[in-house]
Amino acid sequence: MKIVVVGTGYVGLVSGTCFSQTGVDVVCVDVDERKINMLKNGQIPIYEPGLEDIFKWNVEKGRLSFTTDLKETLDGSEVIFIAVGTPPDEDGSADLKYVLGVAREIGRNMNHYMVIVTKSTVPVGTSMKVKAAIQEELNKRNVDFPFDVASNPEFLKEGSAVDDFLKPDRIVVGIESSEAEKVMKKLYKPFLLNGHPILFMDISSSEMTKYAANSMLATKISFMNDIANLCELVGADVGMVRKGIGSDARIGNKFIYPGTGYGGSCFPKDVQALVRTADEYGHSLDILKAVEAVNYRQKEVLIAKIKSHFGNDLKGLKFAMWGLAFKPKTDDMREAPSLVIIDILLNEGASVVAYDPVAMEEAHRILGDKIVFGKDEYDACIDADALILVTEWPEFRMPNFRVLEKIMKTKTIFDGRNIYEPEEMKEIKFNYYSIGRKPVIVSK
After folding, report:
1. How far apart are CA 8 and CA 5, in angstroms?
2. What is the pLDDT of residues 350-389, one digit of tens each?
3. What letter does residue 258 receive in the DSSP assignment?
4. Do residues 390 and 357 lie in contact, with contact meaning Cβ atoms separated by under 8 Å?
């Protein structure tokens, strides 16, 4: 079976590589010639644990290839996945110009039946727009090749995307014909043999499922962050509260860890897009609007704690920052809380020295010389007035506090992920501020 994946970003590259692992012949297409040349030379433009090994294996086996020419890939292809970007427009709605651009090119060049599948996260109704764009191009050619459209949203978590794809919780496919269902069952047969459920539904429901899933998870995060802030005011410990509610099977213990707000490529834009879609239909998603507001506010929560400790004048202070990516096991900094914190600190006249195990190159691309990058986590802390922990990388969980005591100006930590214990900080005489717990104040 031969398939085409258009778009070699995070979703497209992971999807294409993982499909090739099941024995499918996959051609990945992208208009970015530089990126395609990188891939042809064995270089992966994203960081994702486990991807490199299966990428190299399937390239060597000839099952995974790359090109900038979509037209040349269509002969013999049964399925074309559209996995290009859908960036938020100025009003927060998803920009579909890349998706529909691919659809038009398919219509200009297809010459046999195939299933065109939207893998990109798209608003309800997009697949019908894709169908119309393809048909319009076929009409211009005065040809009548049959085709089907389908929706197959991804549910990949950055940092565990390969496992998520190869061992999915569920596979959601929106179809409008029995022929499309037959083709998609054939493609996903290797996953069904391992017992992973495939859920066929109408296309609109499939498109909505992706947005609803991400928005629900974003809601859990913002809810817990708001509860954490209230815990501090009333003297409760959000860690205890989290355990108390997480043991309830109806709630569960995932996505209820307080922090500095969610970021990344999915939650922010998907929540925004769903809100805008609802507005277009005259329905206000008030809960999700509150989720957005809470998340925006949460990204500044550490700044309030910093000013509480040092005072409103931060000019001349030096802050070490551990973690730049929006979460561990990725170099993705889209909508990362670190960027908000850095921007505020710099505007206040402070300086920042940062370290991240993976995201340094991406951070330098975004920030340039606005901040200094440490050689390692301890180098970043030399002469720092305080340490700000933003991303909970495993190597930050058990630092040598004796080393920190010697190299920092003051023993002060602002922990945005609650990875240290207040009692431990009290014993070693560090000022310690976390999320939703009483601060430990030894000295100011």
Report:
1. 8
2. 999 999 999 999 999 999 999 999 999 999 999 999 999 9
3. -
4. no
Asked which of 297, 331, 347 is the last residue of a domain, the reply is 297
- Please state the pTM of the whole predicted model: 0.89
For 348, residues 6+ apart whose C-beta sits below 8 A from its C-beta are 314, 315
Q: How many residues does the chain have?
A: 444
The pair of structure tokens assigned to 339 is 């960027």
For 18, other C-beta atoms within 10 Å of its C-beta total 25
Active site residues per annotation: 266
Tell which phi-psi region holds residue 170, choosing left (phi > 0), alpha (psi between -120 and 50) or beta: beta
- The structural domain count of the chain equals 3
Give the ranges where 235-358 is alpha helix by DSSP (H).
238-246, 267-280, 286-298, 301-310, 337-347
Name the residue among 163, 141, 130, 158 with its Cα closest to residue 53: 163
Residue 169, amino acid: D
Q: Are residues 304 and 185 in the same domain?
A: no
Looking at the structure, do residues 118 and 158 belong to the same domain, yes or no?
Answer: yes
Residue 350 is part of which domain span? 299-433
DSSP state, residue 198: E
CATH code, domain carrying 236:
3.40.50.720
Domain finish residue from 273, 297, 321: 297
Q: Are residues 380 and 254 in the same domain?
A: no
User: Looking at the domain assignment, is residue 164 inside a domain?
Assistant: yes
Which tokens in the block code for residue 254? 């995932």
- Quick one: 247 and 167 in the same domain? no
Do 293 and 303 belong to one domain? no
How many helices and strands (H and E) does the chain possess? 16, 14
Q: Give the pLDDT confidence of 117-137 residue by residue, as tens digits.
A: 999 888 899 999 999 999 999
Q: Determine contact, residues 380/360, Cβ cutoff 8 Å.
A: no
